[in-house]
Amino acid sequence: MTGRRLDLLLAAAALALTLVPLLAGDDLRGPGEWVGAVCQVTGALVLALRSRCAVPVLVAGPLLIGVCTLTGPDPSDFLLPVLMVHAALAAEHAGGRAAWVAGVGWAAYLAVLLVLAGDGGPGLLVLVAPGFLAGTALRLRRETAEQLAARGRELAAERELFAELSVRNERARIASELHDIVGHALSVVVVQSAAGQRLAPHSPGAAVESLAAIADSARLGQADLQRLVVLLAGTGVADPDLSLVDELVAHAARSGLRVTCRLTGSREGLPADVAHAAVRVVQESLTNALRHAPGSDVHVELDGGGDRSVTVRVENGPATGQPPALPGTGRGLIGLRERVVDLGGTFAAGPAPTGGWAVHAALPGDATRMCGTEPARMS
């Protein structure tokens, strides 16, 4: 039922409770009784306007009904339910500090009526006070429902935001994986294709080696993509370990890089996230050396600590040949930094003292994910 219809129903019921005793009795003898009767009827009818102007109605209604205690006719017991409705509606409408004002006002109003009504005092307390308490209970229930509804909307908005962030983070992770896999494979393909074109006229054997390097890179990229597809499909895959670094170094050497690798400490027992990040650091660093520093010497160092941590350093010298036309996306080092820092490690990349480029990453063994950590910078 809408508020407007409820107001009309209450006004009709209050009007009936007011008119029936007035019409049935013979107390309307003088002007005072008529004034009191009109005030009673008006106090009942104003309930129809409660939704439009609640405060004036809820204040004026009880005051109009109380006029009869001064002018006559004597108020009937049928007015008590009307006063109870006014009290309940006032308590239901007023909240916060206004509820205290309404409570004090109704206490003062009842005290005056108790003095003026005489024998009707017990009936006033029996009906009007519980009506006020019932209105208070209804208001508290409504406020609680509104708060729960608001909290529900906030939770729904938070769920949508969380889902959006989750999708965005997952897309960023997939983009980083694709960049590492496809970027490395295509870089080798482009470099070796260019080399094969130059060597084919006068050195067919060397051109055949370039084609073999291209095929090898394509197979490696295909295997990496297959692992990524299997992982995204939710199928379990074998946890990566640092043995993949040996494969990356061997592949880079076949692609034309002069690369050396030194592994100290232990490569066993590393957390999967740590080992995967270490492999990606080496892979991206070798790709960048192939793109930007052809002909340089590349040194890869991995140090596996006893606490299952690992430190990776890849340094290449200055380019000795013309770099191929392989523009990067700018996401490689950014993605590595995010990956390492997200695991609670430190990452730095910058010019090396030898004139080349160096990448350094330190990954903790506990692989505690951290957010908002400032990455370390190379000195």
UniProtKB/TrEMBL annotation:
Domain annotation Signal transduction histidine kinase subgroup 3 dimerisation and phosphoacceptor: ranges: 170-232
InterPro entries to which the protein is assigned, alphabetical: HATPase_C_sf, HATPase_dom, Sensor_HK_TwoCompSys, Sig_transdc_His_kin_sub3_dim/P
Transmembrane regions listed in the UniProt entry: none
Keywords: ATP-binding, Kinase, Nucleotide-binding, Phosphoprotein, Transferase, Two-component regulatory system
Enzyme class at the top of the EC tree: transferase
Gene3D superfamilies linked to this entry: 1.20.5.1930, Histidine kinase-like ATPase, C-terminal domain (3.30.565.10)
Keyword ATP-binding recorded: yes
Single Gene Ontology MF annotation: protein dimerization activity
Name under which the protein is recorded: histidine kinase
Native species: Klenkia soli
